[in-house]
Amino acid sequence: MLILLPPSEGKAQPRRGRPLDLATLSFSGQTSPGLTHARARVLEALVALCGGDRDRAAQVLGLGGTQADLVDLNARLHSSPTARADAVYTGVLFDALGFGSLSPAARRGAATRVAITSSAFGLVRPGDRIPAYRLSGDVSLPGLGPVAGVWREALGPVVEAAVGRGLLVDLRSTTYAAFWRPSGALAPRVATVRVLHEVGGVRKVVSHFNKATKGRLVRDLLEDGADPRTPGALADELTRLGWKVELGEPTPKGTRLDVVVTEV
């Protein structure tokens, strides 16, 4: 099973640690085509942009006037200290998942079962050492173009190799889902999850509930240690763990699971 997470816009800045080394990251391609070349292209364009006109860089990145420090942060990417990705990414989903408080067995499972989508690095494992950065998935970088387009060209073989014969649990948001879409051959083993907040019989998609619930779902799956191989088996597993789940019909893009919650 491979669980694909979205990144967080906010990130904790490591205070100490060795600089970024692309060769040490997962999916770098030492033995097969990987992401190192695409990562280098994106980082080169991002660092060049942020090392120049700061106002222009802020405009391209969609930053406000009080966020000039994030431009400087990007300009220093090659020399900034790094930390584990599961410590760098913060926010509602990652707080609810709580990588740092997982049991030892669940933490070992996360190392091989979880991957985080990244505008700067394509895909990283929780233990990969990365610097803090600011680059949203809908940005187009000068000299490179949309970062989503770069990753669409590179991620397919990497993700499919990581899934193997298992189940892909896709928890990415719409922006990051555009980085890669599963092939028709993989679709029967793809489960996408939507979280619905139900109040008085009315169901809505609410961002906070969506992120927090996805974090808790992943935590429960990792702590339980089960390895469902189909969307139906995943729905059964989540139901056993106490979640209210409604299984949709298979489609050429996968099968959607609706998780219905009444409170966070």
Automatic annotation (TrEMBL):
Pfam families named in the record: H2O2_YaaD (PF03883)
InterPro entries listed in its UniProt record: YaaA
One CC-aspect GO term: cytosol
GO BP term, example: response to hydroperoxide
Source taxon at top rank: Bacteria
PANTHER family hit by this protein: PEROXIDE STRESS RESISTANCE PROTEIN YAAA, PEROXIDE STRESS RESPONSE PROTEIN YAAA
Designated name of the protein: Peroxide stress protein YaaA
Organism in which the protein naturally occurs: Nocardioides gansuensis
